[in-house]
Design a protein that fits this description.
Length: 169
């Protein structure tokens, strides 16, 4: 559970320790959803009148296809998080980095902030390894397993430079 009662926060800070499941409705269509539940930790406390501060960490794993060879890849994601919540009407609430709370809010839901931080931290593209050779553009063979049988492709626009190189040898 990642929702916290504001009345409790008025008395004391709370320890955050929960999970955000890949099937949670907070995820939007097109999001890179984590491959396992995100572990969310930290501390949520009052930071002045109508303001609350969450300092914590999100940890999980993202999965996708290598952008060069299409192999399945998993990547660990861990990120420190610092989020300010402010009630509507507070000048801080106008800051685009702050999360606005309705003036009559009774709970703080961390899930939208966790989602946003995850999307900013998770990789945009996956690579199975840094020196991945990818797939052959002609036959689709995995070049990491070795060269394919296709003849080398030449572009006639480079013939003039190729002849200069060959003449200098």
């Amino acid at each position: 559970m990642l929702s916290y009662d504001i009345r409790q926060l008025e008395r004391e800070a709370v320890r955050v320790d929960g999970e955000l499941a890949p099937g949670d409705p907070v995820w939007a269509e097109g999001d890179l959803v984590p491959s396992e539940p995100l572990h969310v930790t930290g501390r949520l406390s009052k930071a002045g009148h109508g303001r609350y501060y969450w300092s914590g960490r999100i940890e999980g794993a993202a999965s996708g296809a290598c952008r060069r060879c299409l192999a399945d890849v998993s990547s660990a994601v861990a990120e420190d998080v610092h989020v300010l919540y402010a009630e509507a009407g507070d000048e801080v609430a106008e800051d685009p980095d702050a999360y606005r709370l309705p003036s009559n809010a009774q709970v703080i839901d961390l899930r939208p902030a966790v989602r946003e931080q995850w999307l900013l931290s998770a990789p945009s593209f996956f690579l199975c390894r840094e020196d991945c050779q990818g797939l052959c553009a002609r036959c689709g063979a995995d070049l990491n397993a070795g060269p394919c049988g296709c003849p080398p492709e030449t572009d006639s626009r480079w013939d003039a430079l190729r002849s200069l190189r060959d003449a200098s040898r």
